[in-house]
């Protein structure tokens, strides 16, 4: 029988909660303040903690922080009065599983407790069994190729995330491998028949998003139903409007533990949240486990390994592409290039070169002109030394974001980079 430690300074709340919780199969215990609750948890380690936010001498937020220090896997649900919603949202930032607004409905309370237990059971199973058979360590390393410090760090992060079911936020430029990581995590946490439901927020209209994800009554549409016991993969989350973000929060509160939630963004959501451009509760719900995806230029030493892998997948009509090699000068160009399109751009370049070459050794002359025009991204010091034209010429081949960034550094009108 799962155990719940109820923490509230009002005995009447204890009696009420005991009356509604025990008949549903939970064992209840009580504490009247945070200090007593922390001491008792350390001795008995309950499955769930249901704590009021407004207590003395230790309030619910402080108790949450202390519990997370003592037991990072503790499941804490915060109870709050309506006027304290902002504080409850902050609790999500510090690791609360969820929060309940007083007065709450009995069915809402029980549903939240059950989601917490399901979440804890999943964590416990993964702790004993490790990675799922479909997400073994060698499979992860086989998809996240490289020997750089950046990619090794990413591999270790993914291995850890594969053993939990918490929401994951993948942050990084386009083409850095976010889809591959999402597929790995889905394979680790989903069942054999579970689906990876992929939604690109930058392409979905608000109407289709509301219909597919929010549903007619705001409790989840077709995409949510398809993702049940599987993974809901929301790409480019920053593209959702604030009204839709707010509606999404409601859906996640009711359904988030029915699936693995993975989101991606190319922007700094924390900064957008601080600036009021992104819904704070949505941010804390999706960003509990942020992962920074390294850009290819940040791990240039991995490029030769990636080239070998991509070349082996290409089909050459003249000979086995596994035996295609790149000359030293070609490899020098490929490793020095800035790769604004990251892995996607590298894959496209290598595939095209390998499938069209009539020689087993590819030279720099066979590479696209844009790669050969500039062999490295100039530093700010080089620009200040008089390299403005070289800098701008290279920016002409980069993304819009890079153009804007370059224009800001150079202190010139972005139109000059068009």
Account of the protein in words:
The structure is a single chain. The chain has 3 domains: 3-129, Response regulator (Rossmann fold, 3-Layer(aba) Sandwich); 133-292, P-loop containing nucleotide triphosphate hydrolases (Rossmann fold, 3-Layer(aba) Sandwich); 296-417, Helicase, Ruva Protein, domain 3 (Orthogonal Bundle). Helix content is 49%, strand content 13%. The chain contains 20 helices and 12 strands. The strands form 3 sheets. The protein has a 5-stranded parallel beta sheet with strand order 2-1-3-4-5, with helices on both faces. Strands 7-8-9-6-10 form a 5-stranded parallel beta sheet. Helix 4 (85-93) runs parallel beside helix 13 (280-286), helix 9 (206-214) runs parallel beside helix 11 (242-255) and helix 19 (388-395) packs antiparallel against helix 20. The protein is elongated.
Features:
single chain, 418 residues, alpha/beta, Rossmann fold, Helicase, Ruva Protein, domain 3, 3 domains, five-stranded parallel sheet, 12 strands, elongated, disordered C terminus
Give the topology, please.
Elements: E1 3-7, H1 11-21, E2 27-31, H2 34-44, E3 48-52, H3 60-70, E4 76-81, H4 85-93, E5 98-102, H5 106-129, H6 137-143, H7 149-161, E6 168-171, H8 178-189, E7 196-200, H9 206-214, H10 222-227, E8 231-235, H11 242-255, E9 260-265, H12 269-274, H13 280-286, E10 289-292, H14 303-313, E11 325-326, H15 328-336, H16 342-356, E12 361-362, H17 369-373, H18 380-384, H19 388-395, H20 400-410
Parallel strand pairs: 1-2, 1-3, 3-4, 4-5, 6-9, 6-10, 7-8, 8-9, 11-12
């Amino acid at each position: 029988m799962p155990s719940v430690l109820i923490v509230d300074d009002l005995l009447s709340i204890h009696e009420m909660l005991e009356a509604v919780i025990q008949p549903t199969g939970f064992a209840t215990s009580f504490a009247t303040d945070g200090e007593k609750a922390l001491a008792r948890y350390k001795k008995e380690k309950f499955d769930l903690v249901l704590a009021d936010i407004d207590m003395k001498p230790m309030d619910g937020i402080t108790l949450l922080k202390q519990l997370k220090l003592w037991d990072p896997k503790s499941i804490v649900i915060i109870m709050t009065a309506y006027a304290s919603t902002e504080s409850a949202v902050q609790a999500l930032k510090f690791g609360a599983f969820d929060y309940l607004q007083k007065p709450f409905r009995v069915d809402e309370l029980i549903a939240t407790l059950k989601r917490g237990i399901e979440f804890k059971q999943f964590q416990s199973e993964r702790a004993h069994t490790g990675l799922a058979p479909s997400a073994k360590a060698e499979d992860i390393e086989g998809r996240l190729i490289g020997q750089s410090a950046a990619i090794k760090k990413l591999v270790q992060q993914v291995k850890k995330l594969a053993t939990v079911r918490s929401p994951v936020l993948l942050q990084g430029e386009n083409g850095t491998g976010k889809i591959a990581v999402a597929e790995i995590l889905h394979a680790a946490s989903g069942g054999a028949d579970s689906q990876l439901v992929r939604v690109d927020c930058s392409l979905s209209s608000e109407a289709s998003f509301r219909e597919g994800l929010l549903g007619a009554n705001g409790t989840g549409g077709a995409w949510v139903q398809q993702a049940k016991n599987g993974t809901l993969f929301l790409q480019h989350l920053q593209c959702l409007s604030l009204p839709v973000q707010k509606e999404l929060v409601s859906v996640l509160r009711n359904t988030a533990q029915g699936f693995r939630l993975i989101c991606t963004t190319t922007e700094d959501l924390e900064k957008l949240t601080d600036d009021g451009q992104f819904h704070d509760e949505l941010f804390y719900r999706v960003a509990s486990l942020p992962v920074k995806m390294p850009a290819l230029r940040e791990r240039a030493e991995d490029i030769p390994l990636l080239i070998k892998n991509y070349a082996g997948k290409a089909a050459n009509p003249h000979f086995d592409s596994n035996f295609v090699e790149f000359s030293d000068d070609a490899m020098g160009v490929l490793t020095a290039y800035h790769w604004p399109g990251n892995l996607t751009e590298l894959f496209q370049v290598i595939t095209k070169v390998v499938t069209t070459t009539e020689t087993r050794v590819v030279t720099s002359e066979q590479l696209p002109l844009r790669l050969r025009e500039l062999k490295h991204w100039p530093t700010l010091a080089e620009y200040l030394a008089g390299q403005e034209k070289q800098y701008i010429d290279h920016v002409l081949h980069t993304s819009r974001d890079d153009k804007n960034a370059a224009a800001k550094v150079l202190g010139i009108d972005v139109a000059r980079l068009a």
